[in-house]
Amino acid sequence: MDEPRWLDAHEDRAWRGYRRMRRLLDLELARELMRDAGLSEPDYDVLSDLSEAPEQRLRVSELADRMLWSRSRLSHHLSRMQQRGLVMREEHPSDGRGAVVVLTPEGRRAIEEAAPGHVAAVRKHLIDLLTPDELAALAAFSHRVVDHLSAPGRPSP
């Protein structure tokens, strides 16, 4: 077994800062979203993905892949959202085994009401704190990591 490549002080500081920032940012954005719009982050993710999809509908399997969730976990979450009138499920028109999630008018209203406040929170707690060069660096490294982790042949989450 190879000797581990331990992080040096500079790398460790960057790694720990990133982890702490991510946890605090996720927590604050989730709190504000729930307080201001009554939506959880997964609710918001489902509604925003559906609102941007053609005809405001997606296959359950595609939505699960986008959210990095199992179909079972997503199905349970969709049931709760369906009870609140935010989404509905239909059979896939050409594949009776597949299901499609559809944004309801109530779901559309919920995302339209939540989005301005959520974007303001993202801006307040991240975007506006960065210089243009820092924002460009954030975009570059985050996409590089996403591309690496999404590469063909890598196991699915």
UniProtKB/TrEMBL annotation:
GO terms for biological process: response to stress. One of its GO terms (molecular function) is DNA-binding transcription factor activity. Gene3D superfamilies: Winged helix-like DNA-binding domain superfamily/Winged helix DNA-binding domain (1.10.10.10). It comes from Micromonospora globbae. Residues 11-147 form the HTH marR-type domain. The lineage of its organism: Bacteria, Bacillati, Actinomycetota, Actinomycetes, Micromonosporales. InterPro entries: HTH_MarR-typ, MarR/SlyA-like, WH-like_DNA-bd_sf, WH_DNA-bd_sf. This is MarR family transcriptional regulator. Pfam families: MarR_2.
